[in-house]
Specification:
Layout lengths: L1 H20 L4 H18 L16 H10 L3 E10 L3 E10 L17 E7 L7 E5 L13 H10 L20 H10 L9 E8 L4 E8 L2 E8 L10 E3 L10 H7 L7 H4 L1
Length: 265
Amino acid sequence: MTALVAGATGVAGTLLHQRTAAPDTSAVDAQAAQLAEDLRGDLNAGFHSGGRPYGGQFTEGTLVAQVASHGGVLVSSDTERSQAAGDVHTADVMLGLVPPAGETVAADAYPVRCYRYTFGIGSHSVRQSGMTCPASRTDGKPGSLAAQMGVLLSRQPTGAFAYRQMATTGYAHTPQGAVDFLKDKRLTATGDTVSAVSGTAGSGGVHVLALRINGTCHYLRMDSSPTASHLIPLWAAPADEQETCGVQQAAEAAALYGVDPAEQG
């Protein structure tokens, strides 16, 4: 009897320890919920978008910026064509790499977690769900995916000039024109290494480049139209595209999400 009681006490103690030691995910879950709301705001229709007059017209760059602002990284993104729903976009993200701005959160109370977002046209289309983080790094190398994402996040633009909405008019659609734009707009600094991987011309005066800034793959969308000034022209490629850094991926990432009811009248 004594052994059974001792055993039962030991199991209960273990369960109690597991219960109290389990990470509190409320902080990172709140970041994930806010990210979904940000996405709904961007997809809101025109004049009802709370100060965002071009609701629904943005690129992967806006998505990358939103995820980074919530302490995370875009792991992958994809678009599928559905006859019933049109384009359905999917974004897998890792959050919890950086605590919420201005807050100090214990590491065990702010665990790294992964989430999936799907959306189409309109704020009602946004869906958020938890998902199991991939077990391996996206580059196939040994080590922790969270550590890889942490390094990628640390190499993304920071400060007052990060992820600004701006026009790229007046710059040649060439590697040199891209370098000039980045320097003039202070998106890169003296000492940064910029190398263009490849570029391609798109429709409507759009030119897209895949380039590396200090070794990290970025996409640059150069648009001749002054109405593109509300778009973010430069952003870090998703984690699973860092190795390939291809121009076709850049072109797909630079495509406009949704529609623009405000401009369509």
